[in-house]
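Appendix C reproduces, verbatim, an entry submitted by the partner laboratory led by Prof. M.T., so that reviewers can inspect both the input and the predicted structure.
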Amino acid sequence: MELRHMRYFLTLAEELNFTRAAERLMIAQPPLSRQIRDLEEELGAPLFIREHHALRLTEEGVLFRDYASRIITMADQSVTDIREYDQGLHGTLYLAEVEGKAPHLMAGWISGFAAQYPNIQFILWNGNSDEVVNRIRKGLSDIAVIMEPYDPAGLHSVQVYSEPWVAMFRDDHPLAKKKSERISMHDLAGYDLIIPSRESRLREISDWFGANSETPHVVARIANVVTAYELCKEGLGVAIYPAAAGDIVPDTGNVRIRTISDKGIRASYVLIYSDEHPLNAVTAKFIEHIRSSLSDRSL
């Protein structure tokens, strides 16, 4: 199997049409058909379902597409790295992050790194921790910042930040009568709650209430803290989010933000990268830069 076989396959997987794929590859259709048949024979499985004037990927084809995409990306990146090695550090960093404090952390690292290596391009993707971990495992992103909890299998990880959780509620909510700037999980028991959408978050928050033999009453699970804030403004309930929510939405108008004071209830941010995919020169250098930044911060 050669790289050109994978390129032929990936082009056909995008077009799902032999004629269009052959035109893109600037080859005749019969050689393309023959190369795909040879590839299927080598793999021992059909990659496409051939229908009248149409193609569809088989399950094996979908799996092979993921592997082939990663291999071609690494092959192209290796050529770029070698060609530009003598010209200083060049290339593209594919980064991913969750909301909260992660954008602030990532922006600081990027700014410092870009000052040292001005020929680096940065491509950032944002999603929840489960989505970000999936991108790292598939090789779609090089480095990411997520929040615990997560499945650490196949990942290198470094804790980079920790912060408390906060509760957000409207100023006519009963909790607004408390004069303290801090609030406990026991105080939140019995009220309608708005929490992050991840299933692992629901389990984690349930455990916090369970420590007091209480059960949370969740009325909404929202991926975006801005939407949670807007629901609080409308009086739907109390939102529980990491403290960085206060940097995103204001503690003004008719919504109040109070720190949850229970010991051990904190949001931890983790830098992750794959334990299974080799690091290119740019990624390795960026990780070194982040570790240096974290070391300087601890002094």
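The longest helix spans residues 59-84. Additional entries are available on request from the coordinating office.
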